[in-house]
Amino acid sequence: MVGAACALYAARSGLDVRVLDRGPVAGGTTGAGEGNLLVSDKGPGPELELALLSARLWAELADELGTAIEYEPKGGLVVASAPSALAALRDFAAGQRAAGVTAVPVGADLLPDLEPHLAPGLAGGMHYPQDAQVMPALAAARLLRASGARLHTGHTVTGVLRTPDGTVYGVRTDRGEVHAPAVVNAAGTWGGDLAALAGVRLPVLPRRGFVLVTEPLPRMVRHKVYAADYVADVSSDSAALRSSPVVEGTAAGPVLIGATRERVGFDRSLSLPAVRALAAGAIGLFPFLERVHALRTYAGFRPYLPDHLPAIGPDPRAPGLFHACGHEGAGIGLATGTGRLIAWALTGKAPELDPEPFRPERFDTEGGDER
Ligand SMILES: Cc1cc2nc3c(=O)[nH]c(=O)nc-3n(C[C@H](O)[C@H](O)[C@H](O)COP(=O)(O)OP(=O)(O)OC[C@H]3O[C@@H](n4cnc5c(N)ncnc54)[C@H](O)[C@@H]3O)c2cc1C
Questions:
Q1: Per-residue confidence of the chain (371 residues) as pLDDT tens digits?
Q2: Which of 24, 134, 172, 176 has a C-alpha 20 to 30 A away from that of 51?
Q3: Pocket of ligand 1, candidates 302, 308, 323: which has the most ligand atoms within 8 Å of its Cβ, to mutate?
């Protein structure tokens, strides 16, 4: 998704773009996550600014690409089960509002108007009309097509070509060399490996997430609905299993129940504790789900950087190399803003957004890798 957005905005800035991927389109984490475009889960700061820019760009693309990317401006609803959680949610929303987010308090009595099938007894919630959704694999494919970039699937990058003075001038692949004055590393969870091919360090780690998919249903869940403690899970540095329910209906019918977070390397094996935690949490929010069949589960590996911010921009350690990776659980939402930032960097235009917090070399000042 991130590579597709970089290709789109770079091409629209007048650049000649080639996209290389060792697999098919959306064969990485993009094809293994959900497609929420969220501002609701981000506190004031650089990630929220990028999310707000990205949300505007997604809405523009939706106007242009129509239903082809299954864009749905459905809004998010965050609910609190206890008065203390509601107070914390209100404080969080006040900070977000000051940063440009629309956050509308919803009293307990009004929750059923937004979500008729929610569990009774919740303390209240917050409605975020700017939250939206796309179908990630479709969006990646459509953005690539719209970019007009030449696409080379089944090409594995095996080296980054550098002149004796260190300037990057292309990549080596298992099918030959590709020369270019600029190379963008949009390798997601494998972005650290690609950086290493250029001799630079970028500590991207996998953070596994499971999603549970129900049988198709009539639309029972209208918004993206999640519990207030989800935000704490997202920003947690813990390697242990964390799970807070995130429930959403889809245009096709199945309800998606996400998402766990744990750092277990690239282990793909099914984790019953993770899937059980998802099911229990979702039933807690929407009791009717207890009677619904789960059809399947799938897992993906979020590209995790230790400070939870992506790496976006030129790498001064390897002139000609740019990074656009490490978006963790928000790479679909943040893809458009990232693509725009990369296009600005490639063409030397002044960015509308301060790129400083996303500097790829920022980890060089800290200690060793986090494992
Ligand atoms: C369970 C789960 C739920 C999620 N839900 C959401 C959500 O609701 N909203 C959201 O915004 N985000 C969500 N995410 C996160 C999101 O999926 C990722 O942040 C995003 O997909 C990252 O996109 P990417 O393009 O950076 O990486 P990828 O999609 O992984 O793309 C990287 C590409 O690089 C290619 N590649 C790697 N190495 C090489 C090489 N050496 N040569 C050639 N090609 C190479 C791979 O084949 C891959 O196609 C979720 C993730 C998970 C796991």
A1: 999 999 999 999 999 999 999 999 999 999 998 999 999 999 999 999 999 999 999 999 999 997 899 999 999 999 999 999 999 999 999 999 999 999 999 999 999 999 999 999 999 999 999 999 999 999 999 999 999 999 999 999 999 999 999 999 999 999 999 999 999 999 999 999 999 999 999 999 999 999 999 999 999 999 999 998 767 666 667 777 777 889 999 888 999 999 888 999 999 999 999 999 999 999 999 999 999 999 999 999 999 999 999 999 999 999 999 999 999 999 999 999 999 999 999 999 999 899 999 999 999 975 444 43
A2: 24
A3: 302
Bridge partners of 214, per DSSP, are: 294
Cα(126)–Cα(273) distance, integer angstroms:
29
Q: Which helix (H) or strand (E) holds 9?
A: helix 2-12
Diameter of the chain measured on Cα atoms? 68
What is the distance of C-alpha 254 from the center of its chain?
21
Q: How far is the CA of 88 from the centre of ligand 1 (A)?
A: 31
